[in-house]
């Protein structure tokens, strides 16, 4: 008799000692490691979450210059950002004087999608 095993997702691991907020962040970190892209996870600007107006950048990558890399998982879709999210994105881009790399939900449906996105858009 054949029995089917329930599907089990890959467990999330720590990224630089911190628990990621999503599987997409974890997969992105694994891709960054694979492609040997130096990064800092949960980079704080303007005091991070400890100060009003502070922000957290999912990844700060060096490719070769410091570039914010934002992971918007499956719940995010292009053109659906509200005013606060748009304001935060503008603040991040002005802080780094550089356009952020954004991985949207449609770019991160599977682990393979994430690796392909990182290879194409981050590993320059």
Provide structural commentary.
There is one protein chain. The protein is α+β, with helices and mostly antiparallel strands and 124 residues long. It has a single domain (23-121), classed as VSR Endonuclease (Endonuclease, Chain A), CATH 3.40.960.10. Helix content is 30%, strand content 19%. It has three helices and four strands, in the order αβββαβα. It has helices spanning 23-34, 83-96, 111-121, and strands spanning 39-45, 55-62, 66-71, 101-103. The chain has a four-stranded mixed beta sheet, sandwiched between helices. Helix 1 (23-34) crosses helix 3 (111-121). It is globular, with a radius of gyration of 16 Å.
Short account of what is shown:
Helices cover 30% and strands 19% of the residues.
Order of helices and strands: HEEEHEH
Summarize the biggest pleated sheet. Answer: 4 strands, mixed
Number of strands: 4
What's the average pLDDT? 88
Assign a percent range to the helix content: 25-40%
Number of domains: 1
- Shape descriptor reads globular
- Structural class comes to alpha+beta
Distance between the termini: 51 Å
What low-confidence regions span 5 or more consecutive residues with pLDDT below 50? none
Cα Rg: 16 Å
Please identify, by name, the CATH architecture.
Answer: 3-Layer(aba) Sandwich
Kindly report the spatial arrangement of strands forming the biggest sheet: 1-2-3-4
- Count of helical regions: 3
What would the CATH topology be? Endonuclease, Chain A
Q: What name goes with the CATH superfamily?
A: VSR Endonuclease
Strand content: 15-25%
User: Quick one: CATH class?
Assistant: Alpha Beta
């Amino acid at each position: 008799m054949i029995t089917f095993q329930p599907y089990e997702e890959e467990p999330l691991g720590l990224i630089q000692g911190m628990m990621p907020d999503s599987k997409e962040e974890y997969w992105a970190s694994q891709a960054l490691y694979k492609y040997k892209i130096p990064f800092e996870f949960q980079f704080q600007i303007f005091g991070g979450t400890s100060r009003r107006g502070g922000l957290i950048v999912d990844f700060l990558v060096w490719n070769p210059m410091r570039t914010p890399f934002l992971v918007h998982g499956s719940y995010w879709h292009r053109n659906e950002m509200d005013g606060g999210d748009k304001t935060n994105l503008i603040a991040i881009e002005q802080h780094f004087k550089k356009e952020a790399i954004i991985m949207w939900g449609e770019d991160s449906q599977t682990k393979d999608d994430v690796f392909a996105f990182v290879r194409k858009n981050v590993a320059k």
